DNA sequence: AAATCCCGCCAAACT
DNA sequence: AGTTTGGCGGGATTT
């Protein structure tokens, strides 16, 4: 339910780009549509439809399609509006994050592959690259119960990181969900840091891998038995792996227990990106990169091929773009990722995704396969003041969380931090905190929601927000009534604990 | 001819 | 054993 409503908010202004339009149609699967027979070809020759075009099956294009596909089901909205919502509904984030979880938010790998008209193998390629730069699409498919347990048991800080900054958390079964670009800034930041450290030789570089609390997948019966709690980390996979990388200097070495396949596409991607993040030059040709990434080895043919794969995906995200090296005719790639490159790390900055204009829904619908050069001329230093507005989602959320907590704790406060979508009007809020009975809580939340209702200049935004408020209310009341199975697993106390977890 | 890079076999890694 | 991931390289397409 609610699917239709949300979709209505999507701009979807039919562009006049006839050329692209065609592709777009194909890229956006309509609901009733089932298969996508397009290229159903058996192995060998491609008799039918000689319209076969290699380009139409490029990873890059596929990638953008994937994005649009995922976005289609509400998730698109979630991805972009998440920050907005959290500004006011910080405490509701869990709800937002899992909103419509079951059918819309996630898509089965097989289904996706089918709709895109490709083999699942390709999906893996894309996902791997995306994940390595923080655009995670792999999401734990936590059940409501599991998630709530999660919230109840861990510090809210962790929860927020978990929800927003998620950098590749995997472990799910064939299920993907689009989370957005929220994790990108952080991911890049970390990559850079790591890269610099490596460069300077020393530094043992701590293992990364955000702990992923893998909860059961099926709702029932997943007691958290272990009293201790926490320490659910579980590094998963590689105990060590990810060596300090092998630059030209040290080729064959490590290998404790076979460096497994840590020559994976994902790792390669990260290293590739690191090149851009550290290096002063901002363009590089693939074979050049291949050399750097793989100590001049002699097994490069393959490596280059992989780089092409990566480049395609990154390119479709506008993280990178291909250009002709001025001097030599050789094509090379240029990093577009982070706007300014002020080394000052204290700075927020890092305009995230689509360098598009306003609401970055640019590539939302798989269109724009041509990355028409945005007006991002030379060093676009047009972001001095914007910095504040384009902080990473994580940053926003953090602030958000703080302010909300504050507000929950005390009366109102003036320092509410707004994100990119500045509400026009002011907001008043005077929810009398104080946790009364459960029933009252419902009231409180409702009033809270009401008073927090922002006044967006943008009509669509306002509607959307309203929609969510509505959804939340309905969900909450239903829940409060106990009709929800969740109640069986834990009573109000738990929920409240999570809602008012400001202790 | 050189640059790209899709396709899908088949082996690890997980159930 | 069955399934899900995802190296890897042949060789088709593009440039």
From TrEMBL:
Record domain E2F/DP family winged-helix DNA-binding: where: 54-180, 260-337
Annotated localization: Nucleus
Any one GO MF annotation of this record: RNA polymerase II cis-regulatory region sequence-specific DNA binding
One Gene Ontology term, aspect cellular component: RNA polymerase II transcription regulator complex
Domain of life from the UniProt record: Eukaryota
Keyword field: Cell cycle, DNA-binding, Membrane, Nucleus, Transcription, Transcription regulation, Transmembrane, Transmembrane helix
Biased composition regions of type Acidic residues, renumbered to the chain: 216-231
Name of the protein this chain belongs to: E2F/DP family winged-helix DNA-binding domain-containing protein
Lineage: Eukaryota, Viridiplantae, Streptophyta, Embryophyta, Tracheophyta
């Amino acid at each position: 339910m609610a699917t239709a409503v949300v979709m209505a908010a999507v701009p979807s202004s039919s562009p006049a780009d006839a050329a692209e339009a065609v592709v777009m149609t194909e890229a956006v699967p309509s609901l009733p549509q089932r298969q996508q027979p397009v290229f159903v070809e058996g192995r060998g020759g491609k008799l039918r439809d000689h319209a076969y075009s290699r380009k139409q099956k490029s990873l890059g294009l596929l990638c953008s399609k994937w994005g649009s596909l995922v976005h289609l089901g509400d998730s698109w909205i979630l991805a972009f509006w998440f920050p907005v919502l959290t500004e006011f509904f910080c405490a509701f984030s869990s709800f937002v994050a899992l909103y419509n979880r079951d059918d819309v938010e996630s898509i089965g790998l097989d289904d996706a592959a089918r709709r895109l008209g490709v083999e699942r193998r390709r999906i893996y390629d894309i996902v791997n690259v995306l994940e390595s730069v923080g655009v995670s699409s792999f999401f734990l498919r936590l059940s409501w119960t599991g998630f709530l347990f999660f919230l109840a048991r861990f510090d809210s800080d962790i929860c927020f990181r978990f929800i927003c900054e998620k950098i590749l958390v995997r472990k799910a079964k064939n299920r993907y969900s689009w989370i957005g670009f929220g994790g990108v800034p952080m991911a890049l930041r970390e990559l850079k840091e790591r890269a610099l450290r490596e460069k300077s030789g020393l530094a043992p570089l701590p293992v990364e891998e955000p702990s992923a609390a893998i909860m059961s997948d099926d709702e029932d019966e997943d007691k958290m038995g272990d009293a201790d709690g926490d320490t659910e980390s579980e590094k998963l996979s590689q105990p060590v792996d990810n060596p300090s990388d092998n630059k030209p200097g040290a080729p064959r070495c490590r290998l404790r227990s076979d460096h497994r396949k840590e020559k994976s596409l994902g790792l390669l991607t990260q290293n590739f990106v690191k090149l851009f993040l550290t290096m002063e030059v901002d363009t590089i040709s693939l074979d050049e990169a291949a050399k750097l990434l793989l100590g001049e080895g002699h097994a490069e043919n393959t490596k280059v091929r992989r780089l092409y794969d990566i480049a395609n995906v990154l390119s479709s995200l506008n993280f990178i773009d291909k250009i002709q090296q001025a001097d030599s005719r050789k094509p090379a790639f240029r990093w577009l990722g982070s706007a300014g490159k002020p080394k000052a790390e204290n700075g927020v900055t890092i305009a995230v995704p689509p360098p598009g204009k306003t609401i970055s829904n640019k590539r939302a619908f798989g269109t724009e396969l041509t990355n028409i050069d945005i007006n991002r001329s030379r060093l676009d230093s047009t972001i001095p003041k914007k910095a504040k507005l384009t902080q990473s989602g994580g940053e926003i959320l953090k602030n958000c969380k703080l302010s909300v907590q504050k507000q929950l704790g005390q009366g109102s406060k003036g320092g509410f931090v707004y994100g990119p979508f500045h509400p026009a009007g002011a907001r008043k809020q005077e929810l009398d905190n104080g946790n009364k009975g459960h029933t009252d809580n419902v009231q409180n939340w409702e009033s809270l929601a009401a008073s927090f209702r922002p006044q967006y200049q943008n009509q669509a935004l306002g509607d959307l927000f309203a929609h969510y408020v509505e959804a939340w209310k309905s969900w909450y009341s239903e829940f409060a009534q106990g009709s929800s199975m969740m109640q069986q697993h834990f009573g109000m106390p738990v929920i409240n604990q999570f809602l008012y977890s400001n202790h």
